[in-house]
């Protein structure tokens, strides 16, 4: 499943250029029985199957060791299987694939993203581990930027009824993340979304470094509307201000539109945006009093 759609378009070109790399890990390789079982029935009864903590813990430990190897100031040469992904910065070579297990689809997957071009001390710096689950904290663009700028990320993709909770008790460093209030067949699709959001922010992936500066969520607002030729389409005109050439008026119009759209469509974002605007003003008044 990896790189899947990330092997084409901007992400695909960046993959070919060595800006990031894909290193899947097959969780079934850590099973201990001949059937390579990774799940079992829920304790207390109920429908579905639950991913076993002992199997996933072994896979997570392996992924952490692999990421630690990549964080050393030398090219990564780890052999991995199906299910994990990593980003490498331009100054590092692509990973050299090792023997790849032959686990088929339907298995949960691990995905690691991000080896930096700088020399990190793996003893002092660890990469985040994220578990994709609808029970997690909703991902934000701010968190995506942190991940894209960091030393890497390992993504654990859930399946079936989810994870044995003891996995998170044993590994409190695992960050539970949701891609929204929806249910997917597995965490792999969510992982692809997360990886794409990170990859496009890597240096040199987008045509211009400023391309994402005014997109939705970057300033706490949804993005303003866009228009292009023809000026008149079925009697619908491009707003006059966008054809005026007055950059100050255009900027003011775009901000007003972004604020209005956010207020109407995302009252949750609008509330946070208003609070963020009020807080600095309050801080200034408090400093003046001091």
Low-confidence stretches: 73-106, 113-124
> How many strands appear in the DSSP assignment?
9
For the largest beta sheet, what order do the strands appear in spatially? 1-4-6-5-7
Per CATH, the class of the largest domain reads Alpha Beta
What is the CATH topology assignment of the largest domain?
Alpha/beta knot
Number of separate helices: 7
The CATH architecture of the largest domain can be given as 3-Layer(aba) Sandwich
Distance between the termini: 58 Å
Our count of domains comes out at 2
Q: CATH-wise, what's the superfamily of the largest domain?
A: SPOUT methyltransferase, trefoil knot domain
Specify the overall morphology. elongated
Main sheet makeup: 5 strands, mixed
Order of helices and strands: HEEEHEEHEHEHEEHH
Strand content: 5-15%
Rg estimate, integer Å: 23 Å
Helix content: 25-40%
Mean pLDDT reading: 80
Class by alpha and beta content: alpha/beta
